[in-house]
Amino acid sequence: MLHSRLRPLPRHHHPSTPTTSAPAPEFQNEDADCEFDESPEDLFGTFLPHLFPDDAPSFHGDPGQHLLYSSPRYGDLNIMVPSYPSSSQQRPEADSSVNQVDEGRRLFAHFLWSAAMVVAGAVEEADTPTAPGETETEAQRENRELWRIKGESVLELGAGAALPSVVCALANASRVVATDHPSSPALSGAIAFNVEYNLARRSPTVVKAVSVYPHQWGLLDDSFSTANKGAFTRIVAADCYWMRAQHENLVRTMQWFLSPGGKVWVVSGFHTGRAIVAGFFETALENGFVIERIYERDLIARSEDDGEIRREWAPIREGEGTENQRRWCVIAVLKRRGE
């Protein structure tokens, strides 16, 4: 199971780690108010999580906590969760009319999100050589083609703890740039720690391939944006979709930075419901993208041969309760129309 790779490190190893937990995000699930004509089978499916309470959390860790991500390919990775913003962290140059602390907290960067673990695990598996004498299955070949990152230039949007950026660097991407909103607490040390601690001790060359920049979606006239238009062959956007008002800005950013022939990896849980995720895909299609591939993946169970359990993407899945949504995520690949 994906989440079994993660465990907290002892707090005494990191004296600065806060001892209190952050409140869980209070997301509005847009599917919760929908009314469906539910069949007995649908109702049974809705209550399966209560009968078999496998937990599939959407996020992990507390602000400032260090988590051990156990990677079969790259060994143990020490991932620092961004600290919960406090008033002492407001930047002197920030606009005084905006409460930067509240802005930072609303970004929900102070967790490690499950969608980031999906990307990291998939990139790692694609970079893992087939064992001697083992025959690669068609599904494995397909996954390797989908997630192979060696030699690609990678931009991560809404990076938070930036686990996908760290793993992409270990998988020999030619360049990796982790970005988050200028108000994000992740830019106050967590991303820098995760990159330096996990990469510098392995290879100076690898760590030099990674950089970190603030970026506000849709604002493309700053020096970073103008210098990197069309510079990335892969864009990672994991759990970035709960703000419906930002969908168009997010798509503008993707279009701006994507190189000709490049692809965008969209990965999202359903903690805000299916409707808002489906709304993002509609916005992307209206603004020059096509969906090359899309499916849903079970975050808990694996098949008998240890492969992923998948099903077709459905923007509306009648009879699905919010509990059922937690164990699934949607994975999509976007490319520009006409390419």
UniProtKB/TrEMBL annotation:
Residues 16-25 have a biased composition (Low complexity). Keywords: Methyltransferase, Transferase. One of its GO terms (biological process) is methylation. One of its GO terms (molecular function) is S-adenosylmethionine-dependent methyltransferase activity. Residues 1-15 have a biased composition (Basic residues). Residues 1-32 are annotated as: Disordered. Pfam families: Methyltransf_16. GO terms for cellular component: cytoplasm. This is Nicotinamide N-methyltransferase-like. It comes from Penicillium roqueforti (strain FM164).
